[in-house]
Amino acid sequence: MRFCSHSEPKEILLKDHLQSVGNKSREIIISKKFNEEINKEYIADVSYLIGISHDFGKYTTFFQEKLKQQMEKGDPLTFHGLISALFTFEVLKEYIKTKKLDDKKPYKFLPLFGYFVVKHHHGDLKAIEDDVKESQLFEQFKKIPEQLQDIDRNIDQIKKEYNELFQDYDIPVEDIYNRFLDKYKENINSSSDIEDAIEEINKQEYFCFHKDITNITYYLLALLLYSVLIDSDKKHAGGVREIYRKELPLDLVEKYLRKPEFKANNTSKINDIRDEIRKLVIKKTTSIPIDDKIFTITAPTGTGKTLTSLSAALILRKRITEELKLEHEPRIIYSLPFTSIIDQNYNVFDDVLQSGQISDFKENDGLYILKHHHLSEIFYKTKDIDKEDDIEESLALIESWESEIIITTFIQLFYTLIGYKNRSLKKFHNIVNSIILLDEVQNIPIKYWPVVREILIAMSNYFNCRVILITATKPLIFEEDECTELLDNHEKYFKSDELNRVVLNIDSRKKRIQEFCNDLNDWSKNSYLFVFNTIQSSLDFYGHIKKKIQTLELIFKVCYLSTNIIPKERRGRIELIKKALDDGEKIIIVSTQLIEAGVDIDCDCVYRDIGPLDSIIQVAGRCNRNKRFEVSDMYILNLIKEDEGSFTKIYDDLLIKITNDILNKYVSNKVNEKEFLKLINMYFQETKKQS
After folding, report:
1. How far apart are CA 9 and CA 541, in angstroms?
2. How many whole angstroms separate alpha carbon 77 and alpha carbon 87?
3. Quick check: 148 and 253 in contact, CB under 8 A?
4. In the prediction, which pLDDT does 330 show?
5. Any idea where the domains of the chain sit in the sequence?
6. Which superfamily, per CATH, for 252-376+403-493?
7. pLDDT value at residue 374
8. pLDDT range class, residue 5, cuts 50, 70, 90
9. Closest C-alpha to 18, from 102, 112, 87, 104
10. Could you report the per-residue pLDDT of 62-96, keeping only the tens digit for each?
């Protein structure tokens, strides 16, 4: 009989599909570097065996008839997930036995993990410990004996194909199949019948999650095996072309900074400081022990941390590859809090790559850099993929992060590291061994710090990742001895007169929005930025200020920016704002907090409703950023609703209380920028202590 795995987009023979998925899965694992606790050969073997077993259930004639549309899709007899998972468990149990790993952690639980990932390879993951208790299991199990009877009719051909698939492994197909048949051939008439049939699976689950202290290694290995399987499976089934890794020149950033147009626009003393910071970080990155895994780059806003972090990542990438003798250079994953700033940072990195004299970059830019968030364009460009009708192939490559530099959001990154969705986890294996840059990391809510810390430490310890936290307000996610600061003596830059660009003016008087607008009388500056806590308060002020500007016949553009503006329009407005500021036009910008993280603008005067201190300091980074004035004013307000309620309810009350307590210590109601580091250290220490 001719057994097929898929009929669309083209017919694929089942054995060819199993062989391809198994080979690709093993190849992915072999290319990785793990710590000493994880034996790569064992995991590679298991990954191959999962790959060749994951569609065992497609050997039923029921499934084959479904492919030919001769049987209804929803008929349980055509389902292949559970029977394939049970077969995978038996295969891996035999492998563990032959390798004498029955009592060795974490390997003794690999049959359980194999069962789990195969059972869910067409859906989302669930908690393993709940997996054998779901109500649907009984209905699925009732069909297993009938499916096995059907398989038995063609068993000689199936055994022949599996003998070829197992040819490099000391695994007896005959014995496995006979045990499998004996265990599941009897009719399933009750829950107790299921309990008897899956006694060994239940026992592994019990010892893994109840008798044993669950190790995060189990979690990481299960996710890795799942990711490798589903990505290899989908790409082979979809006919996705093989993608080849690329090298990145070490001096990419240096070439970019030598561009005449870049140098012409950056002649201030601030730029000298940016250059100094970058060189110091490069020097430190070149000399740190290669076993260091977690780093920070802490510097004031507007000091070029984006390009500096890329320089550091490129150095680490080269050093790790050479010193640890890796097959491939680590991918660089640059992660940001908001989609609104991804385009800006992607464009910077794209310009850097275009300046790098990479011969095939223009025709293969997808191999070098991609951006991925829920609104990004689905287009992955190589010399072979340059057509809109390749959208499915582009999507497969983008969602699995098949590029050297990936620009993405915290959501995409952490939904993969601590997620369960099939679509998100395809790329997990490409995060393994990567260099992860977390920019504006202070935007991660404090309640998530413990889980973020744990998963990043685990990824670095077990899967050889490097993590660089980039921030002007260093949150205490990690203990001091858990990370290495790449900018030595960074405190001096926060205290520098040259970077003392802003003074905070604290106005604790309660004011309604209209009252605040009425009190605005000084319009001597070219640019003003007003930042509000809620969309509604920003819209209220926007309406009032437009009327006021018209009444006073002032020549100002008034531009509104918030998350309630559709992304395409928002990007256009950000570009309009930047151009107006560059051209010296008079402009008033009304915004919410989205402006505070990474939107690279420089305004003469800023007003912000009271919020958490780290947010206030981030907004201060949009004021006199390039020190065009000796010092500029930023005003902290205490705005209230008509019913006297506060607009700060979107934040944790504790954060606002700590912020007010710190600011109230300044009896002059003025705080210079050179004191920001002291303030932010106090703030994070208090939040960590009181949370």
Report:
1. 55
2. 16
3. no
4. 98
5. 4-237, 252-376+403-493, 501-690
6. P-loop containing nucleotide triphosphate hydrolases (3.40.50.300)
7. 57
8. very high
9. 87
10. 999 998 887 777 788 999 999 999 999 999 999 99
Cα separation values, 199 from 97, 132, 190, 204, Å: 18, 10, 14, 9
What is the DSSP track for 566-589?
A: -HHHHHHHHHHHHHHHHTT--EEE
* Residue of 564, 584, 560 lying closest to 574 (CA atoms): 560
Segment 36-40 mean pLDDT: 92
Whole-number pLDDT of residue 265 = 60
Q: Can you tell me the distance from the alpha carbon of 121 to that of 573, in angstroms, rounded to the nearest whole number?
A: 42
Greatest Cα pair distance, the chain, in angstroms, is 91
CB atoms within 10 A of CB 631: 13
Spell out the residues 6+ positions from residue 46 whose beta carbon is closer than 8 angstroms to its own: 92, 95, 110, 114, 225
Residue with structure tokens 């940001």?
336
More confident residue, 562 or 334: 334
Spell out the residues 6+ positions from residue 357 whose beta carbon is closer than 8 angstroms to its own. 249, 255
CATH class for the domain made up of 501-690: alpha beta
> What spatial distance separates the first Cα and last Cα of the chain, rounded to whole Å?
65
Structure tokens at 340: 């609104």
The DSSP string of 149-195 is HHHHTTHHHHHHHHHHHTTTS---HHHHHHHHHHHH-S---SHHHHH
Average of per-residue pLDDT across 148-163: 94
- C-alpha 240/C-alpha 592 separation (Å) is 42
Q: What angle do CA 31, 469, 601 make, to 5 degrees?
A: 120
Equal CATH topology for 252-376+403-493 and 501-690: yes
Indicate the fold that domain 4-237 takes in CATH. Hypothetical protein af1432 (1.10.3210)
**pLDDT for 120-130, tens place per residue?**
999 999 887 67
- For position 463, what pLDDT does the model report? 97
Structure tokens at 334: 């640059």
Residue with tokens 């009425």: 518
